[in-house]
Recover the amino acids of this structure.
C-alpha cells in the first residue's frame, strides 16, 4: 500500500492543492526501493520520474577529475527533481541511495498529462 499523505503535505507547503489534483497526482505514484549505494540515475540516461523520499538518504553527484563529487544530499520528506527531467535531456548527474531507501516515484509522463488537463 502506498502512503502518499506525506507527499501531498509536502506539496501543499508550496501551494495548497485541490482534492482533485491531489488525487490525480497520487493515482500515478509507485514505490521504488533501493539498496545502499545503488545508483538509480546516471549521466547519459533520461530521468523518468520525480521522487519523494519516504525513508533513507539520497545523494547527487557529478563526475570529477579523479572521482565522483557530491553536489547534494536529500533525506526523508524531501523531493528529488532530477536535472533535465522536464525538458527530457540526458542527465549529467548520478543519483544514488546512500542507505536503504524507499521513494515514491511520480512518472514525468503522468505529471505532464496532469499539467495538460488541469487548470491548476
Amino acid at each position: 500500500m502506498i502512503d502518499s499523505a506525506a507527499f501531498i503535505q509536502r506539496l501543499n507547503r508550496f501551494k495548497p492543492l485541490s482534492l482533485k489534483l491531489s488525487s490525480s497526482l497520487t493515482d500515478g505514484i509507485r514505490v521504488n526501493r533501493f539498496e545502499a549505494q545503488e545508483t538509480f540515475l546516471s549521466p547519459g540516461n533520461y530521468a523518468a520520474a520525480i521522487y519523494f523520499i519516504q525513508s533513507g538518504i539520497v545523494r547527487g553527484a557529478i563526475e570529477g577529475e579523479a572521482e565522483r563529487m557530491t553536489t547534494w544530499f536529500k533525506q526523508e520528506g524531501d523531493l528529488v527533481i532530477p536535472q533535465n527531467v522536464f525538458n527530457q535531456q540526458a542527465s549529467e548527474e548520478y543519483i544514488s541511495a546512500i542507505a536503504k531507501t524507499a521513494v515514491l516515484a511520480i512518472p514525468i509522463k503522468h505529471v505532464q498529462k496532469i499539467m495538460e488537463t488541469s487548470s491548476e
